[in-house]
Amino acid sequence: MPESGPPGPSIPGQRSLPSGAAPEVPTPAVPGLPITAAAFGLEAVLHPTTAPPPPVTGTPPATPAEPVFQRVLGGPTGLGTNSLSLAGSSTGTAPSPPVAVAESAAPPLPEAAPEAVPESASGVERVLGGPTGLGTASLSLARTAHRPPPESVPAPPAPAPPAEGQAVPGLYHHPIPEPDPLRVEEVSRRIKRWAEDEVQLYPEEWEGQFDGFSVGRYMVGCHPDAPTVDHLMIATRLMVAENAVDDCYCEDHGGSPVGLGGRLLLAHTALDPLHTTPEYAPAWLESLGSDPPRRAYRSAMDYFTAMASPSQVDRYRHDMARLHLGYLAEAAWAETDHVPEVWEYLAMRQFNNFRPCPTITDTIGGYELPADLHARPEMQRVIALAGNATTIVNDLYSYTKELAGPGRHLNLPVVIAEREKLSERDAYLKAVEVHNDLMHAFEAAAAELAAACPLPPVVRFLKGVATWVDGNHDWHRTNTFRYSLPAFW
Amino acid sequence: MPESGPPGPSIPGQRSLPSGAAPEVPTPAVPGLPITAAAFGLEAVLHPTTAPPPPVTGTPPATPAEPVFQRVLGGPTGLGTNSLSLAGSSTGTAPSPPVAVAESAAPPLPEAAPEAVPESASGVERVLGGPTGLGTASLSLARTAHRPPPESVPAPPAPAPPAEGQAVPGLYHHPIPEPDPLRVEEVSRRIKRWAEDEVQLYPEEWEGQFDGFSVGRYMVGCHPDAPTVDHLMIATRLMVAENAVDDCYCEDHGGSPVGLGGRLLLAHTALDPLHTTPEYAPAWLESLGSDPPRRAYRSAMDYFTAMASPSQVDRYRHDMARLHLGYLAEAAWAETDHVPEVWEYLAMRQFNNFRPCPTITDTIGGYELPADLHARPEMQRVIALAGNATTIVNDLYSYTKELAGPGRHLNLPVVIAEREKLSERDAYLKAVEVHNDLMHAFEAAAAELAAACPLPPVVRFLKGVATWVDGNHDWHRTNTFRYSLPAFW
């Protein structure tokens, strides 16, 4: 199945920008009251500040020991309002003045300099009147990084050139600043120690592949607002564990569609535990340590559960159940040699999807999107569209790799070519347009929701998802060892 | 796979008790403040009342038009506290004086008369000091039905003998009163009209099987606290739709494990909609009407979504993703002719499970268990244990039917016999003990949670789950046409 987080080489010799990334949550005039202009960052645009952001400290979720009724009946002092205080603490991290943002339909450039706003301005830009909206979170963060630091901070090195690797021509996306190299180095060091010492993830001969995954760069780029490296490690362990299950159960490293349903369900119990009798519980518990994928799921989930609220954990479990359903649909089609209709493939890819990664952005950011807001249909639509756009990015960048692999590997260009009788080139270019349509729909839906519900946790979550989408694209773009674009231009 | 809601004959000629079933939510001394004794019904036991319950009117969930921040920041006046007012409105529906409750290890009797408290008193009884706790919801409801009505209400007919059908000897369970015959008749009439006129669920020749399912009796027995028949219809449509998907995709009516992953995922999009581009959305939408299972899922979900809160809908979607993962694990084992270890089978059955049915008890009851309380690990454990116990009930009652079917059909006695080298009889009797252990664990965990968090919506939800477990057992017990017990006693 399409690889949802493939190994790739780390990019050597990168010089990077200082990390100034911090959440850009507007400050309500009266804390706790809804805000409008501020929610869109317009207030900050009108009054830009050069003050550095104070450190963001995420409030940990309540422990089970805390009386439940206090959390439920206590009004807006509970978990769901963490981000109010976070918003208040990030006053200085205002978005920068408007600059051009998108690269839609532009030829690939060696550097990610701002370019002309395309004809097809994103929904966010249409609604928010400029590139200060949700869809441009990553660029705002980039500009934040360019901001002159205060006296007390050592002068940053000159801005580094972006990592090598070209974007798919015509792909609508937003460039991001180089991920903070200090955080990348620390996350990379810690995740390797976790993989080798805590979960024995791979045999020695796979070490190079693990390093090439460069998951540290990936996660630092997707979560620039993480208050600490510990927060980044939550996302990094889960990403590694998800890829271990995909590789070892489904794909490259011994995976197979045959019997996959049984293997995935047993692995899923590392996320959604079995509750059974004392006679049978020990064998189940022992099974969680019986192979690398389950050891990785269990350990990553234990760390996540310790930092997230129960509702955030339940959200993640649901997204992982969706992912496993998607794996199993794809496996069923592989077993029966069925080439789905394009809409069927897109439906499968809404489940076999990056969704579990962006939807933990609030946990990694140290705040919580309240469960009742996450569940609203408008938010569910935004999340689904973001996940779909970013998953098609994977199809486009891994296209030539998957063509070179054994057998027919379904991805959007392949399915379009077969079902709509298009040439490989025309099918690929149509897949790019499908991606762009999904991105514009995502940004428009996010802007509409922010306008309808300008609560700080909602606006910050929407921005966090948009930032994850941008970081994921950049990670694919820069994996030049693993990915090469087809010669269609 | 084990049939999770099989057709069965309706029981003719039943005389029934008047419906007195109403939620037994204690009244807080000070509304909005936590309560303890009242939460356990002890207060009511000390001061039993014979006043009839006022009609329970469920507060509909907020519409999307309601400003989100009001719901989130408004403190304990939102959806999550509906049940506080419901609690206040059900003052009269106090539990009855203590009577014996369980039938554990008792020989089957033709009538469900109260019997001696068994040695193995349930966790609830241990914690609550008598049969007034959660696990005895159904009996309390039974006693409520026996209560002499006030002058203004016509005298009820004499108590009817219980429906035919004997319980599995030694099975720990709680009897229930005969479901309200007027509600059963109305639900049965409406569900047939829905199946035939709205979703064209079955060809004419299957009408007898549909009638034999007696889903009206099933759902009225499981949801005695539903404020209206409209609420009961929500549960009834979903139950019928779940069985249509199982029968037509997985089992008896054209189902197969081959390619099941693709079929189930596309059906799942009727519950968890696809968000894609204008070019491909219409074909997906059209697919939802393309076969009976998808028509049933879509229509039942539309009705449910109109009555439930977004968080309740998200909870149901998650439980249905679990169910579909369970189907796919069982299908994978069937395809590879794998007989799982007993613990593996129990893990699969925690997913291929009745869970989606009891967890909508609050929607059907017209209130909401707040999402943050539903997500707590203690509540997740209670729900999982209840679902596991009630699912093993299905294995036990369908044992001889599945033995008679073609091929080997996995169920708990069969797996125990093969994996633990026991005789069919000893394996069946061990499966009964596994069920009883799960029931006792469920009741103990529910009592602990009620003691730790005696909020009316929590206590009512826990009682609603217990009532569903009892109603599900009674439905299996009374399906004498479909089920027959093995000759092991």
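qc> The first helix of chain A runs from residue 42 to 46.
qc> done
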